Amino acid sequence: MASGTAPTSGEYIVHHLTHLQNKTQTEVVDFSVVNMDSVFWSITLGIVACWLMWMGARRATSGVPGRWQAAVEMLFEMVNSQAKGIVHNEKSREFVVPLALTVFVWIFLMNFMDMLPVDLIPTIWHSVGPALGFKDYMRVLPTADLSVTMGLALSVLLICVYYNIKIKGLGGWIHELFSAPFGSSPFLWIPNFLMQMIEFVAKTVSHGMRLFGNLYAGELIFMLIALLGGAWSLSAGGICLALLHIVAGTAWTIFHILVIVLQAFVFMMLTLVYLGQAHDKH
Question: In the chain, how many domains are there?
Fold first, then answer.
């Protein structure tokens, strides 16, 4: 932090939860405010995800596969088997399977940023950022930013709308909006349409909020554990805090490995489910 004195626990957490933005956040909703750190890490990790998949495909051989090729093939088979049971249109799966695989790898890499030491990259940025004219803020976990997770969820919604129109036709989809789930009676058109809109909104919000909530909570716990290590001293209580920091950090890191993998898998599966529903006719 910029201050010469040691920050309090509250100041430490608030500083770590503040985004590097292109301008000061106003009290009103202002969509011109951009979280530049989230954009940078999302794009960077997206490029890394595509590069990793490209390397696996580039090194593919018909003989005995290497370790990376075998790992990529296992991931592809896992995603492909899940997609076959949900999206029954073979032509659609040519796009849906690579999409789901990219979503899984990309979100896993973004989630994995939470496994880095809490102060590692912010400390580096503290020496570099202000010298380049930027503010001394840097959040490295894109999936703990609601704008990122909701952006991903909205992207899935738009793809669902595309497949609804492609599979059912524009007229067929509009007819479904007004005739399902209660029936095609004119008296039920408005309730049907409202229920359809509620369903789309609920699926999209829950899709993005689930990923955000879990990773945001995990990020906070890592910060609280880091505070234990920062409070140690050469005393009985201080040494106990240091030992607790090590034990708690190790235990939470091991558990969090499952969390970041599970959240990437859940987001991918929900993407497949929603795309599968877009193919179903009512």
Answer: 1
The active-site residue, picked from 93, 214, 233, 235, is 214
- Tokens standing for 38? 């989230």
Q: Please write the tens of the pLDDT for every residue from 228-252.
A: 876 666 677 678 878 888 888 899 9
> Domain range spanning residue 173?
9-279
How buried is 212 (Cβ within 10 angstroms: 0-12 exposed, 13-18 middle, 19+ buried)?
A: buried
Residue 73 lies inside a defined structural domain of this protein: yes
The answer to whether the beta carbons of residues 214 and 259 sit under 8 Å apart is yes
210 is catalytic: yes
With a CB cutoff of 8 Å and minimum separation 6, the contacts of 208 are: 146, 149, 150, 151, 152, 153, 154
Q: Is residue 264 part of a domain?
A: yes
Determine, yes or no, domain membership for 199.
yes
Is 127 a known active-site residue? no
Is 185 one of the catalytic residues?
A: no
Examine residue 188 and state whether it is found in any structural domain, yes or no.
Answer: yes
Q: Which of 22, 184, 206, 233 is catalytic?
A: 206
**pLDDT digits 0-9 by tens, 143-193:** 999 999 999 999 999 999 999 999 999 999 999 999 988 888 889 999 999
Q: Which one of 80, 89, 155, 210 is the catalytic residue? A: 210
